[in-house]
Amino acid sequence: MSPDALAAAGNAFDDSLDTYFRNGLADADGDVAALIRAEGDRQSRGIELIASENVVSRAVLEAQGSWFCNKTVEGYPGARYHGGAEIADALETLGERRACALFGARQANLQPHSGSQANLAVFSALLKPSDPVLGLDLKCGGHLSHGSSANISGKVYDIRAYGLRPDDGRIDMDQLRDAARKHRPKLIVAGGSSYPRELDLKGFREIADEVEARLLVDMAHFAGLVAGQVLGNPVDYADIVTTTTYKSLRGARGGMILWNDEGLSRPLRSAVFPGVQGSPLLHMMAAKAVGLGEALQPAFKDYARRVRNNARALADEMMNCGLKVVTDGTDTPLILVDLSGLETDGQTASDALAAIGITCNKNLIPNDPRPPSTASGLRFGVSAMTSRGIRESDIRRVGRWVADCLLGRMQDTGRVRQDVERMARSFRYYPMP
Ligand code: DSN
Fold this sequence. Notes:
The protein has 17 helices and 15 strands. By secondary structure, the protein is of the alpha/beta class.
């Protein structure tokens, strides 16, 4: 480049600095701004029933877009590899304290970027490659990171599965005990991504003790109900508890690990960093801390109660209308509908619901004959709509729309689409930009 061209490029950079620091997204990048507006519009005019989604507060959103986005640290408070970490240390310590206070745990780690990362860190802290692990079968509602052959957990460890009782779809604790005696797992994993019932935490603990296994409870889907004291607290029973922070807990996207035993602190912390992750996402750490602070407020207990009441009302209405619900109900925010007696599959059914503005996801049902790409079930959750203020009478109306759509009883889908939108827009949301 000629000296003149270099000078011009330098000036162009200097000139751009003003707009770089001053312009908001709408001025800086119209393409992305338009997509964000479109997503906001989509969210506000639909009934969002994806079980792993929620709606965070304006404060959580703000923390995610904060100056912490610019900061790099590695390590833990007081022992970092980068300078300028004093405020990051204060933030991480505050978040850990809130997590411990909320769940009655002695130790917390908020660095995992996701629930899967949290689980991977726990596996690598406790196990050697090829060690036996006992987890809920993916086909029965388990999670990929608990030992699916498609996940690193299933490739590195010797995964054995337990399942459900065929008569009522609940976890078969007798089968679990037999499997634990036979395989002598080093780790038993409780929890999953589509199991709708409260776990028998005491039963899991007894079986783990009998075979001298560690017990991990992944409470990702029901952590908000634990925080709101609607469900029993896994921290009182498990050696280690993992969770995502964004489902029923209603915080920022990411994961978290809780435990009590000081002896686990060093292996768990070093399994997260440097074991499976590098620098934590401090802006998400800030948002996690805000969400945990919100969950410590008395209003969160009301929220958690409403989530459970709404979930039960939705399941009840769906069954009244003729749909088959796995386990005939729910104790958690999620509901699993069994489509196996109908002329449809999970993919087709979720597309049909999306066309009237109701969003959920296709899901395997226990011992599903179909592959995950089509599946024979639909999974629903009420955490997001409850955050927007939906009450039982409206969630029952949603249940009737779902049933009418899936059972081929809907005459005028265009009119229902309008009714769904009218209802969705009647609930609160952020102001549109
Ligand atoms: N585990 C996935 C789910 O349950 O939808 C993502 O959080």
